[in-house]
């Protein structure tokens, strides 16, 4: 297989994770690294025996790259992706696709326009949690219809603990102007993507976002959301970066039983009869449906994570075959849910989806323009990024 000439834009914490993976992939030729901090670009380029660039446009126009991984702060994703599309460069974008729905739409439109000229153009999203064995099995079980009509999904994911030093490690972090949000924009695009991947986008959203409740930040660090779907299913989404020890507990209820994921175990509670049929037909006022409990075996001895997503991306470019872990155009879905939660919280009203994306963008601009938050920035954070990924 001929090597794909790849460039990487953004050499912060997640960018360095990509460098580690790229080094282990024989099918990639790393032709350039780009960061606006010149010392950082020079240092990592020297380590990788490639060339340093300080502007993504210079990387695009001088390196001879065929594809790029975008790993910069969120607001820059749409512009860099659009510049790549215009030049026929394949894009693998870190989450989120954009900070708000309007920018996500602009990115997707730019991709659609570029495909008219470059029909084989590949656009992928780095939603690596879709590759996690337990999440794949949950998707499989729900998709099989075994649970029947779904009635409720409750996800409590507080395993996203972040210290104040984490937020102080960059001037862009946890600000409306620099990051565009908090846990919904940074950590939970993965969770929101998984939610819509399995259940679809809610029809109505009621959100409660607490701003700087536990950390000295101006964005949300604790969120509780309630979702309604047109098929009758309701959802609960509870997340925070301020709970330790945290928990990742997902409970999915259907007429035929309940699926429970927690502590790297997946259990199913199978009803002997549909609970909906039982509640309509039984003459017993209090008797529950009989059920059987079983632990679902999941093979965890498989490769997952960022590398798998990248390999699928490179394979599509090289062969034109194979499915991406997540198409780039799917990225707007998690952005929609995140924006809906924040819009509901600030307006103190339930939001119908699709909502007015202009209203959300105006809210965001107002939060930026009226911000009086003083950001304190400490030394560059030194940490093991693998600790931040869900398992």
TrEMBL record:
Extract the GO molecular function terms from the UniProt entry: nucleotide binding
Transmembrane intervals: none
Q: Where is the Gfo/Idh/MocA-like oxidoreductase N-terminal domain?
A: 5-116
Q: Name one Pfam family in it.
A: GFO_IDH_MocA_C3
Q: Which residues form the GFO/IDH/MocA-like oxidoreductase domain?
A: 135-259
Q: What is this protein called?
A: Oxidoreductase
The scientific name of the source species is: Paenibacillus rhizosphaerae
């Amino acid at each position: 297989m001929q090597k794909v000439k790849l460039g990487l834009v953004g050499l912060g914490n997640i960018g360095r994770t990509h460098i580690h993976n790229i080094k282990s992939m024989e099918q990639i030729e790393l032709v350039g690294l780009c960061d606006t901090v010149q010392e950082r670009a020079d240092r990592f380029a020297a380590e990788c025996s490639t060339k340093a660039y300080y502007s993504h446009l210079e990387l695009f126009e001088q390196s001879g790259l065929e594809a790029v991984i975008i790993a910069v702060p969120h607001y820059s994703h749409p512009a860099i992706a659009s510049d790549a599309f215009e030049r026929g460069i394949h894009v693998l974008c870190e989450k989120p696709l954009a900070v708000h729905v309007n920018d996500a739409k602009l990115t997707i439109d730019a991709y659609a326009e570029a495909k008219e000229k470059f029909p084989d153009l590949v656009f992928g999203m780095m939603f690596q949690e879709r590759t996690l064995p337990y999440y794949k099995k949950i998707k499989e079980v729900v998709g099989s219809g075994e649970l029947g009509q779904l009635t409720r999904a409750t996800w409590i994911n507080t395993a996203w603990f972040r210290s104040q030093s984490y937020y102080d490690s960059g001037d862009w972090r946890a600000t409306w102007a620099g990051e565009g949000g908090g846990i919904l924009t940074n950590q939970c695009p993965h969770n929101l993507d998984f939610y819509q991947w399995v259940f679809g986008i809610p029809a109505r959203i009621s959100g409660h976002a607490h701003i700087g409740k536990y950390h000295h930040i101006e964005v949300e660090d604790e969120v509780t959301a309630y979702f309604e779907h047109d098929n009758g299913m309701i959802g609960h989404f509870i997340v925070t970066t301020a709970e330790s020890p945290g928990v990742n507990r997902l409970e999915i209820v259907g007429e035929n039983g309940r699926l429970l994921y927690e502590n790297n175990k997946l259990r199913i509670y199978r009803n002997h009869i549909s609970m909906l049929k039982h509640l309509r037909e039984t003459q017993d006022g209090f008797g529950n449906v009989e059920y059987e409990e079983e632990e679902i075996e999941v093979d965890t001895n498989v490769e997952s994570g960022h590398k798998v997503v990248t390999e699928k991306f490179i394979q599509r470019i090289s062969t034109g075959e194979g499915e991406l872990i997540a198409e780039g155009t799917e990225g707007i879905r998690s952005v929609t849910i995140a924006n809906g939660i924040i819009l509901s919280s600030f307006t103190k009203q339930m939001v119908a989806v699709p909502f007015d994306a202009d209203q959300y963008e105006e809210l965001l601009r107002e939060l930026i323009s009226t911000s009086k938050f003083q950001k304190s920035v400490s030394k560059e954070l030194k940490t093991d990024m693998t600790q931040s990924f869900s398992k």
